[in-house]
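Lab meeting, item 3. Inverse folding demo.
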């Protein structure tokens, strides 16, 4: 784990060009990068994470110019409707577009499908790496498959220590939650994974309806995009989604509160949104889940997420990470496991 410097960026480029892996910060979460056009390098991502080959990867581009992506055969022509408008508005940024795959993209990146997920990250370290390399990086989150996404370099070290040669420490990720994934191959366009860029924001640019796909997928079949598995982002400690704001705090559990409570015990509670800004809740979510998980209590309980533009993304991640729901009745916590957990 090394701080960002001209020397560490050169080392990262050398490792990547040699066909190995580097963890690096983006504005969303830390990514585990490999040269995205080399099958042998991409396969190392799946091995390091323990990720199934049915779960495709996002290809991070060095430029938001989609004509360049077509010219280099990273995506196929013709460019889908709305793609250029969305790239001009939201790239670099936390929007991933699912488009037809170019001929040079290995099938390992796309889970064998004829589509590829593309984005341009908005983080100076990621942008510098991509500009120096001049070609795409395949990069899922830098953690073991199905576990909590890392939003700082120490979390990457906890997850992948000894499995990868280099972690670039760029500090905490400013967004803290993965990108919105939008399929441009459906009519109307469909959000496959919610994020900070909402359906309403996208609709304002393309002047058409945008759907939100809610049903997760089975990992035995190739997924349309990353982040669609039913069980994902999960702590080892069972996580329960409370049906009402938490008011009772038995000592055997950890509690994540959305807003501060006067009566909550400090020793076993975490505050998700201390300033009332929903973007702060997103930035804190994975860090707090990781901290609560390390305590080793019987379970983690979390408050309901109130409505906001960030709510669909936060609820999506928590649903996939959860073991079930919880409610306080008759002097005790009653737990209802998820049917497939």
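The presenter then showed the designed sequence:
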């Amino acid at each position: 784990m090394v701080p960002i410097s001209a020397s560490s960026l050169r080392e990262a480029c050398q490792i990547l060009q040699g066909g190995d892996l580097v963890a690096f910060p983006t504005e969303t979460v830390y990514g585990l990068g490999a040269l995205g056009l080399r099958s042998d390098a991409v396969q190392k991502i799946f091995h390091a994470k323990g990720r199934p080959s049915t779960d495709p990867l996002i290809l991070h581009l060095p430029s938001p110019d989609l004509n360049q992506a077509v010219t280099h055969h990273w995506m196929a022509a013709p460019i889908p409707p709305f793609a250029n408008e969305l790239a001009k508005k939201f790239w670099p940024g936390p929007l991933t577009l699912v488009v037809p795959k170019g001929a040079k993209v290995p099938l390992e990146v796309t889970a064998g499908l004829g589509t590829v997920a593309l984005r341009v990250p908005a983080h100076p370290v990621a942008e510098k790496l991509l500009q120096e390399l001049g070609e795409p990086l395949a990069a899922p989150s830098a953690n073991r498959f199905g576990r909590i996404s890392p939003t700082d370099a120490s979390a990457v070290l906890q997850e992948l220590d000894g499995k990868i040669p280099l972690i670039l420490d760029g500090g905490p990720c400013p967004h803290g939650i993965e990108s919105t994934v939008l399929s441009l191959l459906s009519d109307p366009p469909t959000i496959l994974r919610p994020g900070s860029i909402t359906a309403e924001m996208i609709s304002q640019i393309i002047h058409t309806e945008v759907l939100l796909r809610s049903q997760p997928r089975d990992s035995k079949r190739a997924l349309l995009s990353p982040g669609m598995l039913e069980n994902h982002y999960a702590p080892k400690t069972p996580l329960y989604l409370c049906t009402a704001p938490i008011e009772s705090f038995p000592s055997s559990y950890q509690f994540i509160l959305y807003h501060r409570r006067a009566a909550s015990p400090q020793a076993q509670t975490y505050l998700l949104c201390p300033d009332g800004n929903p973007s702060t809740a997103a930035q804190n979510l994975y860090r707090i889940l990781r901290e609560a998980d390390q305590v080793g209590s019987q379970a983690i309980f979390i408050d309901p997420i109130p409505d906001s533009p960030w709510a669909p993304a936060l609820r999506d991640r928590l649903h996939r990470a959860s073991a079930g729901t919880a409610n306080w009745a008759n002097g005790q916590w009653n737990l209802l496991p998820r049917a497939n957990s």
